[in-house]
Amino acid sequence: MPDIQSQSVLPALLVFTAASVAILLGGIRLTRLVDRLADVTGLGEAIAGALFLGAATSLSGLVTSVVAAGDGYVDLALSNALGGIAAQTLFLVAADLAYRHANLEHAAASLTNMVSGLMLVMMLTVLLAAGHLDPVTFLGIHPATPVLFALYLVGLRLGSGVRTEPMWGPAETPETRPDRPEGGPEGSPGTGSLLAGILALGLVVAVAGYLIAESGLAFVRLGGLRETVVGALVTALATSTPELVTTVAAVRRGALTLAVGGILGGNCFDVLFVGAADIAYRDGSIYHAMAGEQAFLVLLSILMTVVLILGLVGRQRHGPGNIGFEGLALVGLYGGAMAILLAGG
Questions:
Q1: Which is nearest to 44 in space by CA: 151, 200, 153, 165?
Q2: Are 56 and 215 in contact (CB under 8 A)?
Q3: Structural domains in the chain, sorted by start
Q4: 0.90 surpassed by pTM
Q5: pLDDT tens across 72-100, in order?
Q6: Hey, which residues does 141 pair with through a beta bridge?
Q7: The 3-state secondary structure of 63-109, one letter per residue
Q8: What is the per-residue pLDDT across 162-221, written as a single tens digit (0 to 9) for each?
Q9: Most buried residue among 83, 238, 314, 326 by CB atoms closer than 10 A?
């Protein structure tokens, strides 16, 4: 494989574009497979979205952050992960526009998705707090890293528990689309075939993520762009493309809970990018190498997630273009934050 970082910006741009297209096409197919897997296994759309769709579509971003951290580009590694979380949360507004019947957060009422959102806030808070603790490491890994992985697993278990044995839940209205398994046509693929397809597509997405990472590093080295800008606005958006595609595709298929669950579950998985980057970063704790701009992105992600959770709780039925107050707030928060980052140049 040619050394993209030693070439000019144009070859890096071509590789970046090709990898982005591969991620886009892979994401479309992943939605169909995960939606069917949710029905076949009985996991439910929220858990299947968090575990399979969110993780599989996030592999490209994971590889990007790990490669960048391994090469010592801390700002790029962190901005890619954290910028992806903010961008993917914003994608729910696009999904809301694609669903014309009601506000998506009203129709996709799910206790499991609310749990995922709260776990995401907890993981982001741990990430932010880690930088204010002693910079102690074991084998070059900060203690916050295994804590993040443990919280992710706890969140999956808790989300599954509240789905199978809920103690309370949202009231159903005519606009609510509850998550109920649907039977497939005769001869539909079984669980093994679906998992194999998801794994194969995940591999394609991961390889494309490596190429995007190399291209992003070339933009920094050869193009003179700031790492934070490249991470938050270039690689993060490119590696988050599957989430946009799969979210809109899920809404069009009527899998509303899967759409929201894929975003929130994917965002929880994206926090693990930082933990994986900490393992790849060999110069100490990556949490203590976090600059002010990356901390700003963490706070942005927390704020956007809280707004989304409020939308799931408030369940506004209709708004301008069927977008609730939370959708308008997400657009304002993300647009304002990106303008601040660009102005900091």
A1: 165
A2: no
A3: 4-165+193-343 (1.20.1420.30)
A4: no
A5: 888 888 988 898 899 888 988 887 877 76
A6: 138
A7: HHHHHHHHCCCHHHHHHHHHHHHHHHHHHHHHHHHHCCCCCHHHHCC
A8: 767 766 666 666 565 555 545 444 445 667 787 787 778 777 777 776 777 677 777 777
A9: 83
